[in-house]
Amino acid sequence: MTNQTQSVLKTFEETGAYLRGHFRLTSGLHSPEYLQCAKVLQYPVHAEAFGKDLAAAVKALTPSGKIGVVVSPAMGGLIIGHEVARALGVRFLFTERGPDGKMVLRRGFEIQPGETAAVIEDVITTGGSTAEVIELLRAAGAKVAAAGSIVDRSGGKAEVGAPRAALATLQVTAYPPDFCPLCQEGVPVVKPGSRPTPGA
């Protein structure tokens, strides 16, 4: 575990954001641990610090070193995306899910063809939301230089279609519901995130 990962996890511990119990992840898998970024980002001092570190990390992945816009999927990416944009001195947009469940830009947000973008999330597990945003931006003519998150729960395995950075990389234990030892022990399961679980 890197020093940076240890430092990030210490902040999660101190703010009560490193949860332990029995959780149903957005993927449908069950896990004995959950990182609730919203509990850390409620403190502007931590949001600002993470934003500066993540801005430096995605900028280092950008060949030109210049990023023109930061885009995040709502809801989880809103605060950290805004802080990364602030640190880079660029504007911030966010995507939302439309009636068909696909990511869209609303509220008059527009991407200019040729703009260089970075996509920022709070947590990446499978990378699905980030990949959707990248696809949307490229369809609008943007160049997606990099993606980033505070936490990577995939152990570095998630593929999003662009170079990616994370402040903390973890391999989180997760079980299919039918083979979950916590379920077998009768421990009640909790869904802590903001997105619905498939089939829930």
- Rg is 17 Å
Helical fraction: 25-40%
**Annotation, overall tally of beta strands:** 8
Our measurement of the CA-to-CA distance between the termini, rounded to an integer number of angstroms, reads 34 Å
CATH topology group of the domain at 44-172: Rossmann fold
- Give the count of helical stretches: 6
Low-confidence stretches: none
Main sheet attributes: strand count, strand direction, barrel closure:
6 strands, mixed
Mean pLDDT: 91
Identify the overall geometry. globular
- Under the CATH scheme, the architecture of the domain at 44-172 is 3-Layer(aba) Sandwich
**DSSP strand (E) fraction?**
25-35%
Identify the strand order in the major beta sheet: 5-4-3-6-7-8
Please give the CATH class of the domain at 44-172. Alpha Beta
Order of helices and strands: HEEHHEHEEEHEEH
Which class do the helix and strand fractions yield? alpha/beta
